[in-house]
Amino acid sequence: MWDGLREHAVTAMGTLRLISGSIEVCAGLLMLYFQSLEKAMAINATLALVGPTVLSLVTATGLAAMAEELSWGRMVLIFAGVGLILWGIFSD
């Protein structure tokens, strides 16, 4: 049963990353299409939300699939690490 969950988690994680990469490529193409620094900055600001969201979703998906194998201490460390990454991204 858990092997099936792990396979679905890997599929979901890979799919989320492919969607994220597609969004990044589309954003780059939009920047080139508009040829405007202001619009490029607006598109880039929007991407600043996509990256951390995908990071959080992919990490949560992987942890949910590994929950049976990880101790609470290790899970806390992983969440703390992700929290520090997000803090670093969004802090001044």
Walkthrough of the structure:
InterPro entries: Uncharacterised_YqhV (IPR020390). The chain crosses the membrane at residues 12-34, 46-66, 72-90. The protein has 92 residues and is mainly alpha-helical. It is built from 3 helices and no strands. The protein has helices at 2-34, 37-66, 72-90.
Separation, N- and C-terminal Cα atoms: 45 Å
Q: How many distinct helices?
A: 3
Mean of residue pLDDT values: 90
Shape: flat
Low-confidence stretches: none
What is the CA-based Rg, rounded? 17 Å
Label the structural class. Answer: mainly alpha
Helix % is over 70%
* Beta-strand fraction estimate: under 5%
Total domain modules? 1
- SSE order in H/E notation? HHH
Largest beta-sheet characterization:
none
- Give the number of DSSP strands: 0
Gist of the model:
With 92 residues, this protein is mainly alpha-helical.
Keywords, separated by commas or semicolons:
DUF2619 domain-containing protein, 92 residues, 0% strand, mainly alpha, Uncharacterised_YqhV
Topology:
Layout: H1 2-34, H2 37-66, H3 72-90
Helix pairs in contact: 1-2, 2-3
